[in-house]
Specification:
Elements (H helix, E strand, L loop, with lengths): L16 E3 L22 E3 L6 E3 L12 E3 L4 E5 L9 E3 L4 E4 L14 E3 L6 E3 L12 E3 L4 E4 L13 E3 L4 E4 L13 E3 L4 E5 L3 H5 L5 E3 L4 E4 L13 E3 L4 E4 L22 E7 L7 E6 L2 E5 L2 E5 L8 E3 L4 E4 L13 E3 L4 E2 L15 E3 L6 E2 L13 E3 L4 E5 L19 E3 L7 H20 L5 H24 L1 H34 L1
Parallel strand pairs: 1-2, 2-4, 3-5, 4-6, 5-7, 6-8, 8-10, 9-11, 10-12, 11-13, 12-14, 13-15, 14-16, 15-17, 16-18, 17-19, 18-24, 19-25, 24-26, 25-27, 26-28, 28-30, 29-31, 31-32
Antiparallel strand pairs: 20-21, 22-23
Helix pairs in contact: 3-4
Length: 505
Protein backbone atom coordinates (compact mmCIF):
# COMPACT_ATOMS: atom_id res chain seq x y z
CA UNK A 1 0.00 0.00 0.00
CA UNK A 2 1.27 3.50 -0.80
CA UNK A 3 2.47 5.90 1.92
CA UNK A 4 -0.67 8.00 1.37
CA UNK A 5 -3.78 7.25 3.34
CA UNK A 6 -6.03 5.08 1.11
CA UNK A 7 -8.68 7.32 -0.49
CA UNK A 8 -10.73 4.36 -1.68
CA UNK A 9 -11.87 3.91 1.90
CA UNK A 10 -14.07 6.97 1.51
CA UNK A 11 -16.42 4.98 -0.71
CA UNK A 12 -16.72 2.13 1.80
CA UNK A 13 -19.80 2.54 3.93
CA UNK A 14 -21.05 0.51 6.87
CA UNK A 15 -18.09 -1.88 7.05
CA UNK A 16 -17.80 -3.93 10.25
CA UNK A 17 -14.14 -5.04 10.05
CA UNK A 18 -11.14 -3.02 8.87
CA UNK A 19 -7.48 -4.01 9.25
CA UNK A 20 -4.83 -1.89 7.50
CA UNK A 21 -2.12 -2.39 10.09
CA UNK A 22 1.58 -2.44 9.23
CA UNK A 23 1.15 -1.42 5.59
CA UNK A 24 3.55 1.55 5.46
CA UNK A 25 1.10 4.44 5.67
CA UNK A 26 2.89 7.67 6.61
CA UNK A 27 0.25 10.32 6.05
CA UNK A 28 -2.23 12.47 7.95
CA UNK A 29 -5.51 10.79 8.70
CA UNK A 30 -8.41 12.62 7.01
CA UNK A 31 -11.32 13.89 9.11
CA UNK A 32 -13.84 12.02 6.94
CA UNK A 33 -12.41 8.68 8.08
CA UNK A 34 -14.05 8.91 11.51
CA UNK A 35 -17.55 9.15 9.97
CA UNK A 36 -17.34 6.21 7.58
CA UNK A 37 -19.24 3.64 9.60
CA UNK A 38 -21.13 3.27 12.82
CA UNK A 39 -21.37 -0.51 12.33
CA UNK A 40 -17.73 -1.57 12.70
CA UNK A 41 -16.73 -3.96 15.49
CA UNK A 42 -12.99 -4.13 14.74
CA UNK A 43 -10.63 -1.37 13.57
CA UNK A 44 -6.86 -1.80 13.33
CA UNK A 45 -4.52 0.92 12.01
CA UNK A 46 -1.52 -0.07 14.16
CA UNK A 47 2.17 -0.08 13.21
CA UNK A 48 2.13 2.66 10.63
CA UNK A 49 3.27 6.29 10.72
CA UNK A 50 -0.17 7.87 10.65
CA UNK A 51 -0.28 11.45 11.92
CA UNK A 52 -3.00 13.81 12.99
CA UNK A 53 -5.66 13.88 15.70
CA UNK A 54 -8.43 11.48 16.56
CA UNK A 55 -11.95 12.91 16.25
CA UNK A 56 -15.31 11.89 17.64
CA UNK A 57 -17.61 10.43 14.97
CA UNK A 58 -20.75 12.40 14.23
CA UNK A 59 -22.94 9.43 15.26
CA UNK A 60 -22.69 6.96 18.09
CA UNK A 61 -21.33 3.51 17.37
CA UNK A 62 -23.86 0.68 17.33
CA UNK A 63 -21.66 -1.87 19.11
CA UNK A 64 -18.65 -1.27 21.38
CA UNK A 65 -15.77 -2.26 19.05
CA UNK A 66 -12.10 -3.16 19.43
CA UNK A 67 -9.84 -0.32 18.26
CA UNK A 68 -6.07 -0.57 17.79
CA UNK A 69 -4.26 2.65 16.84
CA UNK A 70 -0.95 1.78 18.52
CA UNK A 71 2.53 2.57 17.17
CA UNK A 72 1.65 5.61 15.09
CA UNK A 73 2.07 9.36 15.53
CA UNK A 74 -1.41 10.37 16.67
CA UNK A 75 -1.36 13.44 18.88
CA UNK A 76 -3.64 15.68 20.90
CA UNK A 77 -6.32 14.64 23.41
CA UNK A 78 -8.23 11.38 23.46
CA UNK A 79 -11.80 11.89 22.19
CA UNK A 80 -14.57 10.76 24.47
CA UNK A 81 -15.88 8.07 22.11
CA UNK A 82 -12.75 5.96 22.74
CA UNK A 83 -13.78 5.62 26.38
CA UNK A 84 -17.06 4.01 25.29
CA UNK A 85 -15.67 1.16 23.19
CA UNK A 86 -14.69 -2.31 24.41
CA UNK A 87 -10.91 -2.14 24.03
CA UNK A 88 -8.45 0.59 23.01
CA UNK A 89 -4.75 0.19 22.11
CA UNK A 90 -3.06 3.60 21.88
CA UNK A 91 0.49 2.85 23.01
CA UNK A 92 3.42 4.38 21.17
CA UNK A 93 1.82 7.63 20.02
CA UNK A 94 1.95 11.30 21.07
CA UNK A 95 -1.33 11.51 22.96
CA UNK A 96 -1.17 14.35 25.49
CA UNK A 97 -4.46 14.42 27.41
CA UNK A 98 -7.28 12.19 28.60
CA UNK A 99 -9.48 14.87 30.19
CA UNK A 100 -12.49 13.74 28.17
CA UNK A 101 -12.61 10.75 30.48
CA UNK A 102 -14.70 12.90 32.80
CA UNK A 103 -17.32 13.37 30.07
CA UNK A 104 -18.35 9.73 30.42
CA UNK A 105 -21.42 9.64 32.65
CA UNK A 106 -23.05 6.27 32.04
CA UNK A 107 -21.40 2.95 32.80
CA UNK A 108 -18.82 2.17 30.14
CA UNK A 109 -18.19 -1.17 28.43
CA UNK A 110 -14.46 -0.40 28.29
CA UNK A 111 -12.48 -3.49 29.29
CA UNK A 112 -8.97 -2.74 27.98
CA UNK A 113 -7.13 0.62 27.86
CA UNK A 114 -3.46 1.00 26.93
CA UNK A 115 -2.04 4.53 26.58
CA UNK A 116 1.55 3.69 27.49
CA UNK A 117 4.56 5.36 25.84
CA UNK A 118 2.76 8.57 25.05
CA UNK A 119 3.06 12.18 26.22
CA UNK A 120 0.38 12.28 28.89
CA UNK A 121 1.19 14.90 31.49
CA UNK A 122 -0.37 16.53 34.52
CA UNK A 123 -2.60 14.83 37.05
CA UNK A 124 -4.76 11.85 36.30
CA UNK A 125 -8.46 12.81 36.21
CA UNK A 126 -10.40 11.50 39.19
CA UNK A 127 -13.38 10.30 37.15
CA UNK A 128 -13.04 6.51 37.01
CA UNK A 129 -16.36 5.51 38.58
CA UNK A 130 -18.09 4.54 35.27
CA UNK A 131 -15.35 2.02 34.45
CA UNK A 132 -16.13 -0.85 36.77
CA UNK A 133 -15.78 -3.27 33.82
CA UNK A 134 -12.21 -2.25 33.12
CA UNK A 135 -9.93 -5.32 33.33
CA UNK A 136 -6.61 -3.89 32.13
CA UNK A 137 -5.27 -0.34 32.49
CA UNK A 138 -1.79 0.56 31.21
CA UNK A 139 -0.61 4.16 31.63
CA UNK A 140 3.12 3.54 32.06
CA UNK A 141 5.95 5.51 30.44
CA UNK A 142 4.32 8.95 30.40
CA UNK A 143 4.84 12.19 32.33
CA UNK A 144 1.89 11.89 34.70
CA UNK A 145 2.25 13.58 38.08
CA UNK A 146 0.28 14.16 41.25
CA UNK A 147 -1.61 11.62 43.29
CA UNK A 148 -3.22 8.39 42.17
CA UNK A 149 -6.98 9.09 41.84
CA UNK A 150 -9.20 7.96 44.69
CA UNK A 151 -11.78 6.69 42.17
CA UNK A 152 -9.35 4.00 41.06
CA UNK A 153 -11.02 2.13 43.88
CA UNK A 154 -14.09 1.84 41.62
CA UNK A 155 -12.17 -0.38 39.21
CA UNK A 156 -13.41 -3.49 40.97
CA UNK A 157 -12.83 -5.81 37.99
CA UNK A 158 -9.30 -4.73 37.21
CA UNK A 159 -6.73 -7.52 36.96
CA UNK A 160 -3.70 -5.59 35.68
CA UNK A 161 -2.69 -2.02 36.58
CA UNK A 162 0.47 -0.46 35.14
CA UNK A 163 1.44 3.04 36.27
CA UNK A 164 5.22 2.69 36.15
CA UNK A 165 7.77 5.22 34.87
CA UNK A 166 5.81 8.40 35.55
CA UNK A 167 6.17 11.13 38.17
CA UNK A 168 3.27 10.12 40.41
CA UNK A 169 3.71 11.10 44.06
CA UNK A 170 2.09 11.01 47.50
CA UNK A 171 0.81 7.86 49.17
CA UNK A 172 -1.16 5.00 47.65
CA UNK A 173 -4.89 5.71 48.06
CA UNK A 174 -6.57 3.27 50.47
CA UNK A 175 -9.44 2.91 47.99
CA UNK A 176 -7.21 0.56 45.97
CA UNK A 177 -8.01 -2.11 48.55
CA UNK A 178 -11.29 -2.57 46.64
CA UNK A 179 -9.40 -3.81 43.55
CA UNK A 180 -9.36 -7.35 44.90
CA UNK A 181 -9.01 -8.96 41.43
CA UNK A 182 -5.57 -7.44 40.84
CA UNK A 183 -2.97 -9.94 39.70
CA UNK A 184 -0.40 -7.48 38.37
CA UNK A 185 0.38 -4.18 40.13
CA UNK A 186 3.32 -2.21 38.71
CA UNK A 187 4.00 1.25 40.15
CA UNK A 188 7.76 1.27 39.78
CA UNK A 189 9.88 4.28 38.78
CA UNK A 190 7.71 7.02 40.32
CA UNK A 191 7.96 9.33 43.33
CA UNK A 192 5.41 7.60 45.51
CA UNK A 193 6.06 7.73 49.24
CA UNK A 194 4.89 6.60 52.66
CA UNK A 195 4.94 3.19 54.30
CA UNK A 196 3.94 0.16 52.27
CA UNK A 197 0.22 -0.20 53.13
CA UNK A 198 -0.80 -3.23 55.16
CA UNK A 199 -4.05 -3.53 53.17
CA UNK A 200 -2.09 -4.75 50.13
CA UNK A 201 -1.45 -8.10 51.81
CA UNK A 202 -4.84 -8.16 53.50
CA UNK A 203 -7.06 -7.33 50.49
CA UNK A 204 -5.16 -8.03 47.25
CA UNK A 205 -4.80 -11.76 47.75
CA UNK A 206 -4.69 -12.53 44.00
CA UNK A 207 -1.46 -10.58 43.43
CA UNK A 208 1.22 -12.46 41.47
CA UNK A 209 3.33 -9.47 40.38
CA UNK A 210 4.00 -6.61 42.81
CA UNK A 211 6.47 -3.88 41.79
CA UNK A 212 7.21 -0.70 43.77
CA UNK A 213 10.80 -0.31 42.53
CA UNK A 214 12.49 3.13 42.61
CA UNK A 215 10.10 5.15 44.73
CA UNK A 216 10.36 6.78 48.15
CA UNK A 217 8.62 4.20 50.32
CA UNK A 218 9.93 3.89 53.86
CA UNK A 219 9.35 1.92 57.05
CA UNK A 220 9.29 -1.84 57.55
CA UNK A 221 8.09 -4.49 55.14
CA UNK A 222 4.60 -5.23 56.50
CA UNK A 223 4.06 -8.77 57.72
CA UNK A 224 0.71 -8.77 55.94
CA UNK A 225 2.55 -9.17 52.61
CA UNK A 226 3.10 -12.78 53.66
CA UNK A 227 -0.61 -13.38 53.00
CA UNK A 228 0.11 -13.11 49.26
CA UNK A 229 0.48 -16.84 48.70
CA UNK A 230 0.27 -16.46 44.90
CA UNK A 231 3.06 -13.89 44.74
CA UNK A 232 5.87 -14.87 42.40
CA UNK A 233 7.58 -11.54 41.72
CA UNK A 234 8.28 -9.03 44.50
CA UNK A 235 10.32 -5.93 43.62
CA UNK A 236 10.74 -3.34 46.39
CA UNK A 237 14.24 -2.27 45.32
CA UNK A 238 15.62 1.28 45.45
CA UNK A 239 13.42 2.69 48.22
CA UNK A 240 14.11 3.67 51.83
CA UNK A 241 12.75 0.53 53.43
CA UNK A 242 14.29 -0.40 56.79
CA UNK A 243 13.93 -3.08 59.46
CA UNK A 244 14.34 -6.82 58.94
CA UNK A 245 13.30 -9.22 56.23
CA UNK A 246 10.15 -10.95 57.53
CA UNK A 247 10.60 -14.59 58.46
CA UNK A 248 7.17 -15.36 57.04
CA UNK A 249 8.37 -15.07 53.43
CA UNK A 250 8.07 -18.84 53.34
CA UNK A 251 4.30 -18.26 52.99
CA UNK A 252 4.84 -17.30 49.33
CA UNK A 253 3.49 -20.65 48.16
CA UNK A 254 4.06 -20.02 44.44
CA UNK A 255 7.78 -19.48 45.09
CA UNK A 256 7.98 -22.85 46.83
CA UNK A 257 6.97 -24.61 43.62
CA UNK A 258 9.56 -25.36 40.93
CA UNK A 259 8.37 -24.09 37.56
CA UNK A 260 4.75 -23.41 36.72
CA UNK A 261 1.99 -24.95 34.66
CA UNK A 262 1.38 -21.51 33.08
CA UNK A 263 4.35 -20.01 31.25
CA UNK A 264 2.63 -16.63 30.90
CA UNK A 265 0.31 -14.50 33.03
CA UNK A 266 -2.86 -14.06 31.01
CA UNK A 267 -5.56 -11.56 32.01
CA UNK A 268 -8.94 -12.12 30.32
CA UNK A 269 -10.85 -9.13 28.96
CA UNK A 270 -13.71 -8.32 26.57
CA UNK A 271 -12.19 -7.18 23.29
CA UNK A 272 -15.39 -6.37 21.38
CA UNK A 273 -19.13 -6.75 21.24
CA UNK A 274 -20.00 -8.03 17.74
CA UNK A 275 -23.70 -7.95 18.58
CA UNK A 276 -26.12 -7.15 21.35
CA UNK A 277 -26.24 -10.73 22.58
CA UNK A 278 -22.61 -11.79 22.91
CA UNK A 279 -19.12 -10.50 23.59
CA UNK A 280 -15.71 -11.71 22.38
CA UNK A 281 -13.32 -12.50 25.22
CA UNK A 282 -9.56 -12.57 24.72
CA UNK A 283 -6.52 -13.05 26.89
CA UNK A 284 -3.91 -10.34 27.44
CA UNK A 285 -0.39 -11.70 27.88
CA UNK A 286 0.89 -9.36 30.57
CA UNK A 287 4.38 -7.87 30.34
CA UNK A 288 6.55 -6.34 33.03
CA UNK A 289 10.07 -4.94 33.18
CA UNK A 290 12.47 -5.41 36.08
CA UNK A 291 16.19 -5.57 36.72
CA UNK A 292 17.58 -9.00 35.84
CA UNK A 293 21.30 -9.61 36.44
CA UNK A 294 21.90 -5.88 36.52
CA UNK A 295 20.08 -5.11 33.27
CA UNK A 296 16.45 -4.00 32.69
CA UNK A 297 14.62 -6.84 30.98
CA UNK A 298 11.05 -7.26 29.80
CA UNK A 299 9.25 -10.55 30.25
CA UNK A 300 6.01 -11.56 28.62
CA UNK A 301 5.71 -15.03 27.16
CA UNK A 302 7.58 -16.69 30.07
CA UNK A 303 6.55 -14.28 32.83
CA UNK A 304 4.71 -17.08 34.62
CA UNK A 305 8.01 -18.92 35.10
CA UNK A 306 9.86 -15.97 36.65
CA UNK A 307 10.08 -16.19 40.45
CA UNK A 308 12.03 -13.23 41.69
CA UNK A 309 12.65 -11.24 44.89
CA UNK A 310 14.51 -7.92 44.71
CA UNK A 311 14.95 -5.94 47.93
CA UNK A 312 18.22 -4.28 46.89
CA UNK A 313 19.24 -0.67 47.55
CA UNK A 314 17.32 -0.19 50.77
CA UNK A 315 18.29 0.03 54.46
CA UNK A 316 17.41 -3.47 55.59
CA UNK A 317 19.34 -4.89 58.54
CA UNK A 318 19.77 -8.15 60.42
CA UNK A 319 20.17 -11.61 58.98
CA UNK A 320 18.67 -13.41 56.03
CA UNK A 321 15.92 -15.48 57.64
CA UNK A 322 16.47 -19.22 57.31
CA UNK A 323 12.86 -19.51 56.13
CA UNK A 324 13.77 -17.92 52.81
CA UNK A 325 15.60 -21.14 51.90
CA UNK A 326 12.18 -22.82 51.70
CA UNK A 327 11.48 -20.95 48.43
CA UNK A 328 13.00 -23.67 46.28
CA UNK A 329 11.34 -22.34 43.11
CA UNK A 330 13.08 -18.96 43.42
CA UNK A 331 15.01 -18.12 40.24
CA UNK A 332 16.53 -14.78 41.29
CA UNK A 333 17.32 -13.26 44.70
CA UNK A 334 18.82 -9.77 45.02
CA UNK A 335 19.50 -8.40 48.51
CA UNK A 336 22.47 -6.22 47.59
CA UNK A 337 23.22 -2.71 48.89
CA UNK A 338 21.63 -3.03 52.33
CA UNK A 339 22.98 -3.35 55.88
CA UNK A 340 22.36 -7.07 56.22
CA UNK A 341 24.75 -8.93 58.49
CA UNK A 342 25.37 -12.24 60.29
CA UNK A 343 26.15 -15.37 58.28
CA UNK A 344 24.67 -16.47 54.99
CA UNK A 345 22.15 -19.25 55.78
CA UNK A 346 23.87 -22.62 55.75
CA UNK A 347 20.98 -24.15 53.82
CA UNK A 348 21.01 -21.61 51.00
CA UNK A 349 21.92 -24.47 48.68
CA UNK A 350 18.31 -25.61 48.93
CA UNK A 351 17.47 -22.84 46.45
CA UNK A 352 18.23 -25.25 43.64
CA UNK A 353 16.44 -23.21 40.94
CA UNK A 354 18.57 -20.08 41.49
CA UNK A 355 19.94 -18.54 38.33
CA UNK A 356 21.09 -15.27 39.93
CA UNK A 357 22.15 -14.48 43.51
CA UNK A 358 23.37 -11.02 44.55
CA UNK A 359 24.30 -10.42 48.20
CA UNK A 360 26.96 -7.80 47.52
CA UNK A 361 27.57 -4.60 49.47
CA UNK A 362 26.30 -5.77 52.84
CA UNK A 363 27.99 -6.82 56.08
CA UNK A 364 27.78 -10.59 55.87
CA UNK A 365 30.45 -12.47 57.83
CA UNK A 366 31.63 -16.03 58.29
CA UNK A 367 32.32 -18.58 55.59
CA UNK A 368 30.55 -19.17 52.31
CA UNK A 369 28.19 -22.09 52.97
CA UNK A 370 29.32 -25.34 51.39
CA UNK A 371 25.75 -25.97 50.21
CA UNK A 372 26.02 -23.05 47.77
CA UNK A 373 28.32 -25.19 45.64
CA UNK A 374 25.38 -27.53 45.03
CA UNK A 375 23.33 -24.92 43.11
CA UNK A 376 24.33 -26.08 39.64
CA UNK A 377 22.04 -23.66 37.73
CA UNK A 378 23.70 -20.55 39.14
CA UNK A 379 24.83 -18.26 36.31
CA UNK A 380 25.37 -15.01 38.21
CA UNK A 381 26.84 -14.72 41.70
CA UNK A 382 27.96 -11.56 43.51
CA UNK A 383 29.20 -11.78 47.10
CA UNK A 384 31.58 -8.83 46.84
CA UNK A 385 32.12 -6.14 49.47
CA UNK A 386 31.17 -8.02 52.62
CA UNK A 387 33.16 -9.43 55.57
CA UNK A 388 33.26 -13.05 54.43
CA UNK A 389 36.25 -15.17 55.42
CA UNK A 390 37.77 -18.59 54.94
CA UNK A 391 38.19 -20.65 51.82
CA UNK A 392 35.76 -20.49 48.91
CA UNK A 393 34.18 -23.97 48.67
CA UNK A 394 35.66 -25.99 45.84
CA UNK A 395 33.22 -26.82 43.06
CA UNK A 396 32.99 -26.47 39.32
CA UNK A 397 30.21 -23.91 39.78
CA UNK A 398 31.79 -21.52 42.30
CA UNK A 399 35.20 -21.55 40.61
CA UNK A 400 33.59 -20.69 37.26
CA UNK A 401 32.93 -17.10 38.39
CA UNK A 402 35.67 -14.53 38.08
CA UNK A 403 37.31 -12.81 41.02
CA UNK A 404 34.97 -9.80 40.92
CA UNK A 405 32.23 -11.99 42.41
CA UNK A 406 34.27 -12.26 45.63
CA UNK A 407 36.33 -9.05 45.83
CA UNK A 408 36.06 -6.78 48.87
CA UNK A 409 36.23 -9.64 51.38
CA UNK A 410 39.81 -9.29 52.75
CA UNK A 411 39.78 -12.59 54.64
CA UNK A 412 38.33 -14.66 51.80
CA UNK A 413 40.72 -16.90 49.89
CA UNK A 414 40.87 -19.76 47.46
CA UNK A 415 40.28 -19.91 43.72
CA UNK A 416 39.54 -17.68 41.91
CA UNK A 417 41.15 -15.46 44.60
CA UNK A 418 44.63 -15.94 46.04
CA UNK A 419 45.51 -19.26 47.70
CA UNK A 420 44.77 -19.68 51.39
CA UNK A 421 47.73 -19.90 53.83
CA UNK A 422 46.85 -23.51 54.60
CA UNK A 423 47.08 -24.36 50.91
CA UNK A 424 50.50 -22.67 50.63
CA UNK A 425 51.77 -24.61 53.70
CA UNK A 426 50.49 -27.90 52.27
CA UNK A 427 52.20 -27.13 48.97
CA UNK A 428 55.50 -26.37 50.76
CA UNK A 429 55.38 -29.64 52.76
CA UNK A 430 54.56 -31.67 49.65
CA UNK A 431 57.45 -30.09 47.76
CA UNK A 432 59.91 -30.72 50.66
CA UNK A 433 58.91 -34.38 50.98
CA UNK A 434 59.29 -34.82 47.26
CA UNK A 435 62.77 -33.24 47.36
CA UNK A 436 63.90 -35.46 50.28
CA UNK A 437 62.76 -38.57 48.54
CA UNK A 438 64.61 -37.61 45.41
CA UNK A 439 67.76 -37.03 47.57
CA UNK A 440 67.53 -40.47 49.18
CA UNK A 441 67.01 -42.26 45.92
CA UNK A 442 69.37 -40.14 43.90
CA UNK A 443 71.92 -42.94 43.23
CA UNK A 444 69.44 -45.68 42.62
CA UNK A 445 68.63 -44.73 39.11
CA UNK A 446 68.06 -46.59 35.88
CA UNK A 447 71.77 -46.23 35.00
CA UNK A 448 72.72 -47.88 38.28
CA UNK A 449 70.81 -51.06 37.43
CA UNK A 450 72.18 -51.15 33.89
CA UNK A 451 75.81 -50.82 35.02
CA UNK A 452 75.40 -53.51 37.75
CA UNK A 453 73.96 -56.01 35.28
CA UNK A 454 76.63 -55.25 32.70
CA UNK A 455 79.44 -55.70 35.30
CA UNK A 456 78.05 -59.04 36.42
CA UNK A 457 77.86 -60.39 32.87
CA UNK A 458 81.40 -59.29 32.02
CA UNK A 459 82.89 -60.75 35.24
CA UNK A 460 81.00 -64.05 34.95
CA UNK A 461 81.95 -64.73 31.36
CA UNK A 462 85.47 -63.39 31.93
CA UNK A 463 86.17 -66.19 34.42
CA UNK A 464 83.91 -69.01 33.27
CA UNK A 465 84.63 -68.38 29.60
CA UNK A 466 88.39 -68.61 30.18
CA UNK A 467 88.04 -71.96 32.01
CA UNK A 468 85.97 -73.36 29.17
CA UNK A 469 88.27 -72.22 26.39
CA UNK A 470 91.83 -72.62 27.93
CA UNK A 471 92.63 -76.25 28.84
CA UNK A 472 95.72 -75.54 30.99
CA UNK A 473 93.72 -72.99 33.04
CA UNK A 474 90.98 -75.56 33.53
CA UNK A 475 93.42 -78.27 34.80
CA UNK A 476 95.13 -75.80 37.13
CA UNK A 477 91.74 -74.64 38.44
CA UNK A 478 90.51 -78.15 39.24
CA UNK A 479 93.95 -79.09 40.75
CA UNK A 480 93.61 -76.04 43.02
CA UNK A 481 90.19 -77.20 44.09
CA UNK A 482 91.53 -80.69 44.94
CA UNK A 483 94.41 -79.21 46.94
CA UNK A 484 92.03 -76.97 48.85
CA UNK A 485 89.79 -79.97 49.54
CA UNK A 486 92.71 -82.04 50.87
CA UNK A 487 93.97 -79.19 53.04
CA UNK A 488 90.53 -78.69 54.54
CA UNK A 489 90.22 -82.45 55.21
CA UNK A 490 93.64 -82.60 56.95
CA UNK A 491 92.93 -79.49 59.04
CA UNK A 492 89.57 -80.87 60.18
CA UNK A 493 91.12 -84.32 61.09
CA UNK A 494 94.04 -82.81 63.06
CA UNK A 495 91.83 -80.39 64.98
CA UNK A 496 89.38 -83.17 65.69
CA UNK A 497 92.14 -85.39 67.19
CA UNK A 498 93.43 -82.53 69.34
CA UNK A 499 89.92 -81.87 70.62
CA UNK A 500 89.39 -85.55 71.59
CA UNK A 501 92.70 -85.72 73.49
CA UNK A 502 91.79 -82.53 75.31
CA UNK A 503 88.45 -83.97 76.34
CA UNK A 504 89.99 -87.25 77.59
CA UNK A 505 92.59 -85.46 79.72
Amino acid sequence: MAPQFPKWLRTQKNYSYLDISNVGISDFIPNWFWDLSTQFTYLNLSNNQIRGTIHNPSSDLVFPPAIDLSSNQFEGPIPVFLFKVASVHLSGNRISKLDSLCDVVDDSELSFLDISFNQLSGELPDCWSPFSRLDILILSNNNLSGRIPFTFGKLTSIGSLHLGENNLNEELPPSLKNCSELRVLDMGENKLLGPIPTWIGENLSALAIFILRSNNFYGNIPLSLCHLSRLQLLDLSSNNISGRIPKCFDKFTSMKEIGSSDTAIVIPYISQYPSFIWARQEGFFDEVQFIWKGTPKKYRSILGLVKHIDLSSNMLMGEIPEEITELIGLVSLNLSKNNLSEQIPSRIGRLESLDALDLSNNKFSGVIPLSLSEVDRLNKLDLSNNNLSGKIPTSTQLQSFDATSYLGNPELCGAPLAKCQEEEHETFVDNKESTDKEGQDGFITKGFYISTTLGFVIAFWGVCGSLLLIKSWRHAYFKLLNDVQDWVYVMVAVNKAKLLRLIRS
